[in-house]
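pasting for the record
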Amino acid sequence: MTNSTNVTRRTALFGAAVLPMAASLAGSAQAMAPMQGTQVPRANRMKVGAFEVTTLLVGTRTVEGAQGIFGMNVSPDEFAAASAAAHIPADKAQFFFTPTLVNTGSELILFDTGLNGAGIVAAGTAPIK
């Protein structure tokens, strides 16, 4: 017994008409998740002359009232306009704590940034908030 499938012009047109609807139904079953935003790398390494310099992100801190830190010499309107032009919020500031490790080839020098970077780096943990 032979099983033959006859594709007629009518079945081809019907299939072409149903295909976009089938594709839209398939898309509704996809999983959704909130956007996470830009990821800041925990370590960056570069050459500076003969030295190798590594910056290590060990923490961040958000502080309210950015104008009281960075824009005390301008009006709130000017500060808001400059913040908007730079695509940063005008009401808070984000600080990054990045100890810097310099490898001279014969010595390793760690510059701490004030968040106990040496203790955090030595412990091998990085508390990113």
